[in-house]
Fold this sequence. Notes:
- It is built from 18 helices and eight strands.
- By secondary structure, the protein is of the alpha+beta class.
- It has one domain (14-524): CATH 1.10.630.10.
- α11 crosses α13.
- The longest helix has 39 residues, at 288-326.
- The protein is globular and about 70 Å long.
Amino acid sequence: MAPTLVALGALIISFVSFVVVRSLQKKRDTKGFPLPPGPPPLPFVGNVIGIDPDHPWLAYSRWGTEYGEIVYSRLFSQDIVIINSERVAHDLLDRRSHNYSTRPAGLVHVLGLLGQDFSSIFLPYSDRWRLHRRIFHQAFHLDAASSFHPIQMRNAHGLILNLLASPEAYGTHLHTFSTSTIMSIVYDYSTASLDDPFIALVERSIEINVRELRPEVAAVITEFPILEKLPPWFPGASFVRGAILQRTLVPMVVDIPFEHVKKNMAAGTAVPSMVSDALNRIPLEAKDEEVAALEKAIKEASAAGYVAASETTRSTLYVFLLAMVLYPKVQARAQAEIDSVIGETLERLPDWADRACMPYINAIIQETLRWFPVVPLGIAHAAINEDVYEGYYIPKGATILANAWSMARNPEKYPDPTKFIPERHMSKVVEEPSKHGPDNASFAFGFGRRVCVGRHVADASLFAAVVSILAVFRVERAPGWNVGPDAEGVKWTGGLTTCRHPVFPCIFTPRHAKERVSQLVKTQC
Length: 525
């Protein structure tokens, strides 16, 4: 028998034996309370069958319809509690945030294997996380976020110039916009308009994170630690190969832009950015070890922030363009609103002062976040201690998933939830608060103490891109591309985040002379 087959056979025997032993060891004292309802688990493996590993939120949403707002499942020995409603998410993740603000131990372990145990987004609830959070808050709180508006609009103008030059490469242009915007905000790092090698480096790193940083992957790796010891050439060892590559990428992704800021500060040429401002806040009287610790935290927090912002902004803009292609009447109404503010002949390009006069554009952004949440399950929380909620027992260490996909498709709050209807977010008089939560898509940014600290910056970047694209272009369906108005048949990537894949064909038709647009960009920069 070939050595590879012998090794594979030994692995299978070890796998089965390990599962049996762990299952027999699994005992639980629920203090007399039942677990939340959920699908019956299979022996040993739990609720593996029937779940698309790349799109688990679809099965979780079906379970929500059958079993209710809170659902229990198990993947091998890992308890998983799925929250399918905003009501329960607010009750647990907001009002009991003291117990649900950490991350699953398995996810943290996988992060370490990828060389990213510093990532603020996935750090356990700890003093280290609180330090990172403070650094983020100082840069990204609501009042501070407005200081980045010129950067965001400048990059949005670069986006429309790129689309004018080569509209067929719009996917590349969206990635350039999202990455260059957050890089400028965090590091004052100017990327090339096309084919920037650093952007390519970041994209490779993001692809690995999206694929591997999922609770389902963490549960398997935690249950079978032998998998992380496999040689990279072994069949099925894709995680190992990805981890090896990621550990070579991470130092470059983290160090290159940070050293760029320090070099500029030493030369006296640095301009305000998240990193330079944070470094300038280090007290002059701080001891060397304190300075080193603060610099390390600033470097780690900034790297985690720009990687996350780059991917989610780009994916959300894909959803926006898909909606404009499938709902031309929505696009026409939005452009009529823009033209009423800046003139039908493009007297100028939209700016920040115009936002208050564009309620329909703001509604489109809200509906984009709701229609297809690009982080469908958010980032997993974990129960620090056991808990009882509405008579159901939640085990200590359970992975807690806030199913944003299910919340976005709540027909009681969002009638015809599969349709793109911005009007549902327009201001209206409400006599009493809804039992389903505020009438917006805030669930897209998470809950509790782990809510996305960059949400104000993300919202502003979306406005800059959306209003600029609609002011300059009419986005149309390419001939022969037949997809229903509710996006039936559209394929989405799987993983931690999701977006339309492959890039769908669409046509960007300038609404005004290219020369006029270019002239306005130059004069308004």
